[in-house]
Amino acid sequence: MIKKKFLLDNIKTLFYALIIAIIIRSLLIQPFYIPSSSMEPTLLVGDRIFVTKYSYGYSKNSFPFSPPILNKRIFFSKPERGDVVVFKTPADNRTDYIKRLIGLPGDSIQFIDSNLYINNSEIIKSVISKNDKIYCGTKTIDVFTFQEKLPNGKSHISVYLKNFTFQDSDIFKIPENHYFFLGDNRDCSKDSRFLSSVGYVHKDNLVGKAQFIFFSSDKLIGSFFTFWKWHKSIRLNRFLKKIN
Fold first, then answer.
1. Cis peptide bond upstream of 79, omega within 30
2. Residue 48 belongs to a domain with what CATH number?
3. Domain of 54, in residue numbers
């Protein structure tokens, strides 16, 4: 009888812990792992970040597996241009992407001679470095590094291949209740420029705002299990780094 009660008590404890974890993950904060180089140098492969779920209100995509419990976004707070945002891709409403918010509803976005234009105004890029190397997948690429300043005054780092592969585009006219996202690694990012796979992102697909990095390790040097390489693979300088 004592063993049975002990077992039931443990099951109850685990159940309550699971419910609390789901509530925290759904309504407050959720960890994410960065698997690609599309946001370098802001986010590196192997960064682990915290995303606040309450920043833009809640939709069905705030919850695990996106259950159809909300038919619209509630407590909606508009994201700001320049935010780094996790969202569900419109292609399947399931895959999590993380990009920088560049275009708001009603905006016109265009690339002309590799320069970004928002509502017919060029976004000024200030050169930081002409000799940086970053990853694009498993390859290392040579890039120009710039500081871009958006119309609302927010600044961020972006990088472009030296031959500026994405030079000109049609005009992207952002529909009502939709947003336009770009990766900071401009020539190595599948983002809103690719209408068939990402395109314009509806506000209900927003998951949350990326806030800071809580852990980071370079998987090309070693994994969690190769503890003898931790001194080389763990990036201590990125711990608790705020995401701008």
1. no
2. 2.10.109.10
3. 2-242
CB 67, CB 94: distance < 8 Å: no
Structural tokens at position 113: 């001679």
Active site residues: 38, 99
Q: In what order do the strands lie in the sheet with 125-136?
A: 125-136, 139-149, 155-161
C-alpha radius of gyration, the chain, whole number: 20
Report the predicted TM-score, pTM, of the whole model to 2 decimal places.
Answer: 0.91
Number of structural domains found in the chain: 1
Digits of tens for pLDDT over the chain (244 positions)? Answer: 666 666 776 787 788 788 887 788 878 999 999 999 999 999 999 999 999 999 999 999 998 888 888 999 999 999 999 999 999 999 998 999 999 999 999 999 999 988 999 999 999 999 999 999 999 988 999 999 999 999 999 999 999 998 877 788 999 999 999 999 999 999 999 999 999 889 999 999 999 999 999 999 998 787 767 778 888 899 999 999 999 9
